[in-house]
Design a protein that fits this description.
By secondary structure, this protein is an all-beta fold. Helix content is 2%, strand content 46%. It is globular, with a radius of gyration of 20 Å.
Length: 361
């Protein structure tokens, strides 16, 4: 949804009434809320079907943001703290909200109103978790849902459509699974999809397209073939899976996925080594190409968050054995020109194996 400041000097009341008649507008303070089919056609000018709305300004004071949730610290202790990256200022805040367990290896997905994370592991019994926590973006309130995953697991991955979130694969202690659980955002019920991944996978990278119609799963780790380089597509409207012909340039697991409007970026991860490379995936052709971009340092178990103009790679560590330790750095990609940058802001605690959720509409 697009949140627009209540400035409509040249919008007639009849136009507003017409939008309201079709159920596409809700008056609120201090915003008018219109659905995502509102299209920008010029400076402060938008269309909705045949209607043209002028002199509407998008507020710069909406705090779209990404949340960094729990994970493993440099001394290999588990965390329950949550940090927030504000996109407009590219600054971090260590908010006074926490997860209910100190955990790592969990997985986050996002609706327009809430972030959800589930699974993971902790250091006491039961070690593997199946609970689901939710964060309401408008209040920053964290709560535990009454529903749970079909089974406890960690190092799973998530995809988000407009109406559902999907948690795919994961490690369950005695093996790796291919099952997909989904949460229905409107009633927060948990069900299993009828489809499963073609391989039982964990430690893989996922990207949901910004139009919320398609999700992609890249690489990962299996007990049979070890590291993978294949790509699987989940079409959200039909909940059908298919294999993409293109593959990653190398087998890779545990990287971070960033989505722009036209491209996906697969960042870092581990394979024969820990990578700093970034591969670029074009949605329209479903082809992987090597990007000229690279992370500031090689790392895996990092996470990502993004707005519609920039994506961010956060934290991570140097290899699977913590020989150097966790990072507090944040790298960024400017989608308009593929320019790479490093934020001046750092995490207050270096961390890896965490998850993220994103408030952005």
């Amino acid at each position: 949804m697009n949140y627009l400041r209540n400035k409509f000097t040249f919008i007639t009341q009849s136009k507003l009434n017409e939008l309201a008649f079709y159920g596409k507008i809700v008056k609120g303070e201090p915003y008018l809320v219109l659905d995502k089919n509102l299209v920008a056609i010029g400076l402060n000018t938008f269309s909705y079907g045949t209607l043209v709305l002028t002199d509407i300004s998008i507020p710069i004071d909406i705090d779209y943001r990404g949340y960094v949730i729990a994970g493993c610290s440099n001394d290999e202790n588990l965390l329950d703290s949550i940090e927030v990256l504000y996109f407009s200022s590219e600054t971090l805040s260590n908010v006074s909200i926490y997860t209910h367990n100190k955990k790592a290896g969990h997985c986050g997905i996002s609706s327009y109103e809430k972030g959800y994370w589930c699974g993971g592991y902790r250091l006491e019994e039961p070690m593997f978790l199946n609970d689901i926590e939710t964060l309401t973006f408008s209040t920053n309130n964290v709560s535990i849902l009454g529903t749970t995953l079909s089974r406890a697991k960690n190092n799973l991955t998530g995809l988000s459509s407009e109406i559902k979130g999907y948690w795919c694969g994961g490690y369950v202690g005695d093996g790796i699974v291919s099952t997909i659980d989904f949460i229905q955002f409107n009633d927060e019920s948990i069900l299993n999809t009828l489809v499963t991944l073609s391989n039982s996978l964990c430690f893989y990278t996922s990207i949901s397209t910004l139009d919320k119609k398609t999700g992609y799963v890249f690489g990962g780790y299996t007990l049979v073939s070890n590291l993978m380089n294949n790509i699987t597509k989940l079409m959200f409207p039909t909940e059908t899976l298919s294999s993409v012909t293109s593959t990653l340039s190398y087998p890779c697991a545990d990287g971070a996925g960033i989505a722009s409007k036209e491209y996906g970026y697969i960042c870092g991860g581990f394979g024969e080594e820990v990578y700093s490379s970034i591969e670029k995936f074009t949605y329209s052709t479903e082809i992987i190409s090597s990007s000229l971009l690279s992370l500031s340092v090689p790392r895996t178990s990092l996470e990502s968050t993004s707005s519609n103009v920039k994506g961010y790679c956060i934290g991570g560590y140097d290899n699977t054995y913590h020989s150097v330790g966790s990072y507090d750095i944040i790298d960024g990609i400017n989608f308009s020109n593929d320019a790479y940058f490093i934020l001046d802001s750092h995490l207050s605690i270096a961390r890896d194996s965490f998850t993220s959720v994103t408030y952005f509409n």
